[in-house]
Amino acid sequence: MSKVKTFLGEVKHELKETTWPTKEAMRKNTLTVFGVMAFFGVFFYAVDSVITFLLNLV
């Protein structure tokens, strides 16, 4: 039980030292992630469509 208490105390200490991102930073990072996901979704859809079209020509 002593190890668990020590562990939880260390976790609490680390959480106090953590620098959390601001609301604006989180918004920017979230939009970046969704933008990259959308870009790669469209990119891979286009590549897949071109490959399918070329294979249907054969």
From TrEMBL:
Pfam families: SecE. Gene3D superfamilies: Preprotein translocase secy subunit. Its main location: membrane. It comes from the Bacteria. It is a single-pass membrane protein. The keyword Transmembrane applies. The chain crosses the membrane at residues 31-55. It is found in: Cell membrane; Membrane. InterPro entries: SecE_bac, SecE_sf, Translocase_SecE/Sec61-g. Keywords: Cell membrane, Membrane, Protein transport, Translocation, Transmembrane, Transmembrane helix, Transport. Component of the Sec protein translocase complex. Heterotrimer consisting of SecY, SecE and SecG subunits. The heterotrimers can form oligomers, although 1 heterotrimer is thought to be able to translocate proteins. Interacts with the ribosome. Interacts with SecDF, and other proteins may be involved. Interacts with SecA. PANTHER family: PROTEIN TRANSLOCASE SUBUNIT SECE. Essential subunit of the Sec protein translocation channel SecYEG. Clamps together the 2 halves of SecY. May contact the channel plug during translocation. Belongs to the SecE/SEC61-gamma family. This is Protein translocase subunit SecE. It comes from Alkalibacterium putridalgicola.
